[in-house]
Amino acid sequence: MSRRGDKGGVRVKTAHFKKVAVNTALKAGGYIKRNLGRVKRVRYKGETDVVTEIDRKSEELIVGAVSKSFPCHGFLGEERGYKGRESEFRWIIDPLDGTTNFLHTFPVFCVSIALAYKNDILLGVVYDPTRDELFHAEKGKGAFLNKKRIRVSRIRDIRKALLATGFAYNVREARKTNIRNFTKILKTAQAVRRAGSAAIDMCYVACGRFDGFWEYYLHAWDTAAASRIVEEAGGKITKLDGKKFSVYGKEMLASNSKIHAQMIQSLS
Question: Using an 8 Å Cβ cutoff, are 237 and 209 in contact?
Answer without folding.
Answer: no
